[in-house]
What we know:
α4 packs across α5 (95-101). β7 (205-209), α9 and β8 form a beta-alpha-beta unit. A 6-stranded mixed beta sheet has the order 8-7-9-6-5-10, sandwiched between helices. Strands 3-2-1-4-11 form a 5-stranded parallel beta sheet, with helices on both faces. The chain has 2 domains: 3-141 and 303-329, Rossmann fold (3-Layer(aba) Sandwich); 150-297, Isocitrate/Isopropylmalate dehydrogenase-like (Rossmann fold, 3-Layer(aba) Sandwich), CATH 3.40.50. It is α/β, with parallel strands linked by helices. Helices cover 45% and strands 16% of the residues. It has 13 helices and 11 strands. Residues 91, 129-130, 133-134, 137-138, 142, 148-149, 174-177, 281, 297, 310 line the site of acetyl coenzyme *A (ACO).
Amino acid sequence: MSMIEMVKAKARADVKCIVLPEGDEPRTVAAAEEIRREGLAEPVLLGDPEKIREEAKRQETDLSGIRIVDPEYSDKTETYAETLYELRKAKGLTREQADQLVRDPMYFGIMMVKMGDADGLVSGAVHSTGDMLRPALQIIKTSPGNKIVSSSFLMDCPNKSLGENGLLVYADCVVMPDPTAEELAYIAIAAADTAKKLCGIEVPKVALLSFSTKGSAKHEMVTKVQKATALAHQLAPDLLLDGELQFDAALVPEVGELKAKGSPVAGHANVLIFPDLQAGNIGYKITQRIGGAECFAVLQGLAKPCNDLSRGCSVDDIVNTVAMTAVQAQ
Ligand code: ACO
């Protein structure tokens, strides 16, 4: 069974309510029908019901049984505005601004998740990553014990000798442009958790990547990864984790044996931690485009699951992301 089929089976076993703020967007409308047909979640579409139904009619999609909520006229709008104001007034948000913001489906959807009226949210077919992330960071906040929100990319590679039967977890490729050593340590621990809970990787083997292996080069960028490795060891002493390792030393058994003898991870890593967002974002795209891997992104560290789509996403991407969000919500 592929990784995504495994995730879908988990999602069906305990159905969660997932809100889709871009409710009248054509791919989202088609995805809602597919999500319901496959029993992956209870989707809720946000937006003007007339526009959503028009789009469904145009593409001959059957939305019967799918809840549509209009943030402009919902009986929750007032309560959400008041709560949003209370949450953000110390940051300078006025009651009037809160009234306006909750009528934006993105904020309304985030408030549904915050208030427990939905279990998770998927957005980004129209919104940019920053526009989707900011309200989630401001309102949902981090889960207890987590200092930061970051992301993991689940890379399903055609070469099944890599990682966990071809499955690799890459972090962070979306959120933190230039993490400190401490933030990098938190990213490593969160990615190991994602590998366990979402990908079914029972024993995450975490490599903190660099252009140096075990002191082969000296530079402040290398020192940051070394510090992050030491901190992650302190924070999660039971985790199989090592650094700093070059990409090949992390993945290829012979190179790992040569460059990092005795490492519990080198040559067999299944979770790869990139030193910054430039490396992570470029790295996942190389693996996808040149390596032919299928890739799936999730945010980690939020108190409740909210996930971002690429604006170039397909209907299948939305369906898959909803399934992953539902599993994170379980
Ligand atoms: N974890 C937890 N909280 C955070 C984080 C984080 N990583 N980053 C910001 N916050 C919080 C802040 O503390 C702040 O909270 P507060 O308002 O309650 O004090 C709030 O979020 C807003 O923070 P800002 O720093 O004002 O937000 P900013 O405008 O800098 O945006 C963002 C944060 C959106 C995450 C920014 O760092 C960003 O744009 N990251 C890159 C996104 C991106 O473009 N990724 C690559 C493309 S995606 C792809 O290719 C798939």
